[in-house]
Structure formats: C-alpha cells, structure tokens
Amino acid sequence: NFKLMISRYSRKEMSDLWTDESRFKLWLEVETIALEAMVSLGIAPQSSLDAVRAKGNFNVERVLEIEKEVKHDVIAFLTNVTEYVGPEARYLHFGMTSSDLLDTAFAVQLCKASDIIAAGIDKLLESVKKLAFAHKHTLTVGRSHGIHAEPMTFGLKVASWYAELKRNKKRLQ
C-alpha cells in the first residue's frame, strides 16, 4: 500500500497503479488466472470459473473493513469476493499461499510501473534529442573537474545527456 506517494511529485498514471483499487483488481485477475489453470487441470469445476468471471468483484471499503476484523489482507479480500460470487468462489486461492498472490500481483505492478517509466524516458529522449540538434552550434563553457575548460557546444552537452538516458533506459529494461 503506497499511500505515502506525494501527489504533487507523482504522475497520476503512476500513483493510480498503487491504489487499493488497482491492487485488488490485480489480485482478482491473478486469482482468476490461477482458477483457469485449475479448471484446465481438472482440479476445479468450470462452473466455479464461470461464476467468478460473471460475478467476481470487490469493494475496497468492504475489504478494508473485513481486514480490520480478521487481521489478514488476503482473507479479507477473498471473503469480500465470495460475497459477490457465492459458494462457487470456494475454489479461488485453492492450493495457493498468500505470497503466491501478493508476489505475483506485486511483480505485475512493478512491470507496469517500469513501462510507465520507460514511456516517460522515451518522451524525454525525444525532447533532449531535439534540444541537442537545436543547439549543436551554441557555444558554452566546457567543464572539467568543476572548473572552466575548453569551449564546447551546448548541443554536445545535451547529446551526452541523451546518451546517458539511453543507457539508463537499457538498464531499466
């Protein structure tokens, strides 16, 4: 739960990814995919999967309310989903641990967050490249160990930044 994100420093797309609503949507998606696998292996009936697909839902406030009582986030979530689905939800989470659910959903969140960051780097690369070409003949003071050095162009300085951004994007990927 990332309620500590400072909204003025966070892009909406990124902060939305870390809300309880988003987290629980991912949990339901992971649980549904696991149930699909169980159905394909003959461990769970198709009717259970059909019911979860048709009625699977949750209410954030209700999950948090149940969690206060049971002191367990996954049990609270599954209890609330069962309130929507009914007895057919009994195969949800079958054979899984809380870590199976939490780690898988967290990995998906991290991948989505990385995609948002990578897209931001792509936009920045575009802008920095334009800036480098626009200033390829603009003279500026070179720097060496924090003191003035030979003159260079501002475009070259920006091109160096562009190259560093590309390396950073590769590291992120």
Topology:
Layout: H1 12-17, H2 20-40, H3 46-55, H4 60-70, H5 73-85, H6 98-134, E1 139-144, E2 147-153, H7 154-172
Antiparallel strand pairs: 1-2
Helix pairs in contact: 2-3, 2-6, 4-5, 6-7
What does the model show?
The chain has 173 residues and is mainly alpha-helical. It is built from seven helices and two strands; from the N terminus they run ααααααββα. Helix 2 runs antiparallel to helix 3, helix 2 packs across helix 6 (98-134) and helix 4 packs across helix 5. The longest helix has 37 residues, at 98-134. It starts with 11 loop residues before the first helix and ends with a helix.
- Report how far apart the termini are: 24 Å
Percent of sequence in beta strands: 5-15%
Number of E-state strands: 2
Low-pLDDT sequence parts: none
Shape: elongated
Radius of gyration: 24 Å
Class by SSE composition: mainly alpha
Return the average pLDDT rounded to an integer. Answer: 94
Main sheet characteristics: 2 strands, antiparallel
How many helix segments? 7
Helix/strand order, N-terminal first: HHHHHHEEH
Keywords:
two-stranded antiparallel ribbon, 173 residues, 2 strands, mainly alpha, 68% helix
Short description:
With 173 residues, this protein is mainly alpha-helical. It has seven helices and two strands.
